[in-house]
Amino acid sequence: MLSTNLYNNIDLARKREQQIDTLKVFNENVTEINFDKEYSVEFPTKAGNLSLVIDLGPKFPFEKPTMKICPRITHKWVDTTGEIVLAPGLMNYTIHSDLGRVVQVIRREFELDQSLTLANGINNDGFSGNIAIGSVKNAITSLSNDVEFFSLAKLTSAELLRLNNNVDCLDEFISELPSIEASNKNIENTITKIMDLANSNMSKEEPINNLKLEISKQLETIENYQKSYAGLSTKYVKLSEKYSPQSISDNLKKAALKCDEESERIAEQFLNGDIDCDKFLQVYVKSRTVSYTRKAKEDRLNYQLKQLKEAGF
User: pTM (2 decimals)?
Assistant: First the structure.
């Protein structure tokens, strides 16, 4: 903090006056409570009209001012006494700050805060007279338009005392009030609607259960179809592998080799004298013919597969 010894009394008064001028320039409804010391700024908010009281200490503007909101509100910047302690502009206040702008920012924060509420147990002593009178008038107007208030106003002192001392009489009086009768009627209508809705829901229970049963049957059918599809898919894969061109070629090759082995076995039997010449010729020629036929089919198939591969298939 700067020392006041650096400035003479003339500079201090001039700077103090300049700060007060900024307060009046940047804010409306500025009221001078105590000349050169205390000012108030009134403004409307969601919680009602508020008054911001600004106290300029003897060392102002070398020290920050004290600000208090009336009536007290619930806000993150305000402590339990209603003093504004956490406003950034006020916390960082220096001789180079503008009092008017600081107050303007605080006022705008309260004006735009839609969640602003009055604190519990507030004291309206610091509230302006016009605002207090307006609040009383509003309360009187509200009571004048209240049917229940007129119902009480018609009673004599003895009847009021009886209501105060007799709970049964009080309950009877309250039950006959127009607003209570309307509320009871609304409750009865609501109960009737709820009962009708409940009966409607109960009537739909059997159709819903039937639909659930039908859905269960359909799900079971779908599961059977899925199992059947899985089995057929497996069978299809096996047949596809079995009858694929490459598989057929491999099977022809194996069958041809088997016929070659068979013809060699027949030739050995003939050389060993186990079979005569006529039978040898008949069986051997047949075996070799089958072998050559299968080899020819294998070669033709492989040639066709090669051609398809070269063509991009």
Answer: 0.39
